[in-house]
Amino acid sequence: MSEKILVLGSNGQIGTELVTALRKSYGENNVVACDIRRPDYDIKESGPFEFVNVLEKDTLNTIFAKYKPTQVYLLAALLSATGEQNPKLAWDLNMNGLLNILDLAISYKTAKVYWPSSIAVFGPNSPKDNTPQYCVMDPNTVYGISKLAGERWCEYYFQKYGLDVRSIRYPGLISWKAAPGGGTTDYAIHIFHDALLKGSYASFLNASTELPMMYMDDAIRGTIELMDAEASKISIRSSYNFTGVSFTPEILAAEIRKHIPEFKLTYTENDPRQHIANSWPRSIDDSYAMKDWGWKPEFNLSKLTEDMLKNLKK
Ligand code: AKB
């Protein structure tokens, strides 16, 4: 049977690259990009696009009836920093968007659903180093709370209805193709743009704030590998710990200086995102992903820095 794939939230940082990768594997017409905004590319020149708000059940129902998707990727969400500016909207979008998709996936017998979680599910009392898959989780952002609740719903739908839902707890994702969407880890993208444009960057996180990160190429490959894995290999139906490399703004700046020696890093004070970052892990133990479906990152700090600068210079 040929696949028909819906990607909801297709214009975001992840969706932009995921749609391209999926279209390469499954064919342009079999991957339907869906978003509330018009994409940057010319719709007529590319594969199918639909305007969809994941909170509008009737529109969603029409789209499911039209395409009868075999796989759905739900990426539409409000991230950690923007979520704090509008907690009720973040909860509504992140939670009810997910429940709408889980219910429609059951009604339309969608074979597989992908939904991203985040390191934001951890909180101030979670272990900070090599944070294990199973530990205390006390998120203190509405984004983290919605992701933790969403993980429980995913596992519930798997156990109660047999829905094949798969999920990854993304760390900060670093990419150059699309702008990041209002997260706490966004400094690690802005720093590259400003290093090239101005030779300096004012970081909203302090010098020693270490966070888990990953290059987008690894994240897209890992996501598709998880979705392609045999169902029998997936032992976790909440969400998998997943990581690439951990670093601080200071360490990242030192790496950038290997290419731009005059690069200057300064720090702003009292940014609310510092408080969020302080509650998150410094590094992640992703051994379940490695053991269950063979996860292995390819980009370390020097490789991702080189690739970011090379592509942003173009
Ligand atoms: C954020 O910073 O909110 C996201 C995330 C880690 O989920 N990048």
TrEMBL record:
SUPFAM superfamilies named among the record's database cross-references: NAD(P)-binding Rossmann-fold domains
GO molecular function: L-threonine 3-dehydrogenase activity
Residue ranges of every copy of the NAD-dependent epimerase/dehydratase domain listed in the record: 5-230
Cross-referenced Pfam families: Epimerase (PF01370)
Family annotation (InterPro entries): Epimerase_deHydtase, NAD(P)-bd_dom_sf, NAD(P)_epim/dehydratase
Biological processes annotated in GO: L-threonine catabolic process
Highest taxon in the source lineage: Bacteria
Family: Belongs to the NAD(P)-dependent epimerase/dehydratase family.
Protein name, as recorded: Nucleoside-diphosphate-sugar epimerase
Species assigned in the record: Pedobacter nyackensis
